[in-house]
Amino acid sequence: MGTNSRYCSGRPDGRRRARGVGYLENLIGSLVACACLLFGSVPSAWADGLTVFAAASLKNALDEVVADFEDATGDTVTVSYAGSSALAWQISHGAPADIFISANVDWMDRLQADGHIVPDTRVNLLGNTLVLIGHGAVSERMIDRDTDLTELLSGGRLAMALIDAVPAGIYGKTALQFLGLWDGVEPHVAQADNVRAALALVAAGEAPLGIVYATDAVVSTDISVIGTFPPASHPSIVYPAAIVAGRGNETAHAFLEYLQGDDAGATFRRHGFTVPE
Fold first, then answer.
1. Which pTM was predicted?
2. Residue 48: per-residue pLDDT
3. Which element (helix H / strand E) includes 31?
4. Which residues does residue 19 pair with via DSSP β-bridges, in sequence order?
5. Which of its termini does the chain have fewer beta carbons within 10 Å around, N or C?
6. Mean pLDDT, to the nearest integer, of 259-270?
7. Alpha carbon 94 to its chain's center
8. Where are the beta strands (DSSP E) in 56-208?
């Protein structure tokens, strides 16, 4: 397997292939093309309710919040989960999302700069922390400049979300660079399309270690948290949310307000997110 490989699972026989980082542009282009074909062919299906594009790391918590909102209001909410980069590109190419929730501010900044979101609706919704995980039961330790990740890997791979596009991967690479660990571990990195895919590689035992959000680590019983990366090693992990330009109907505003309320906040906290006061 080549240096800095990337796993994907698109083969008919279910086996994984390794791809280079340069595959990213083609990946995003394909996603956009497929999205446009899909959205163009079934516009009525997307018009029946609220459509939310959300970072993959939000899935478990946001699914609960959505169910509570639907029970309380009778409205229908459809959520599309993926890496923030792929979702931002889809929105910029006309995908009919009503609300976008990103796992970092950069992709929201890009959409705002290009006029694809409503700036007055933008809020910093949630926060998170970054952790190192291992397959099965592993010993906890401090993650610092003295951590020997190469030894811990024992010839295996370090699973990460795409290091140049997906927020969890960007945060992870930044943290490793800050700690002086990146150069040593870079040849052993296996990149996945999003943070949940990186988690799945570790849970399945295909990679002994991975870097994910703390909130991802609690959804699998097949992994353990080895340690938390120091907050100073990477930018604050912030999830901004905003209404997409031209899509600000009454339900969108109501749902965005609900996301900031006490009931939703309690759910997010229970799943390990931090909620701004």
1. 0.74
2. 54
3. helix 23-41
4. 6
5. C
6. 96
7. 21
8. 77-82, 99-101, 123-128, 130-135, 158-161, 189-192
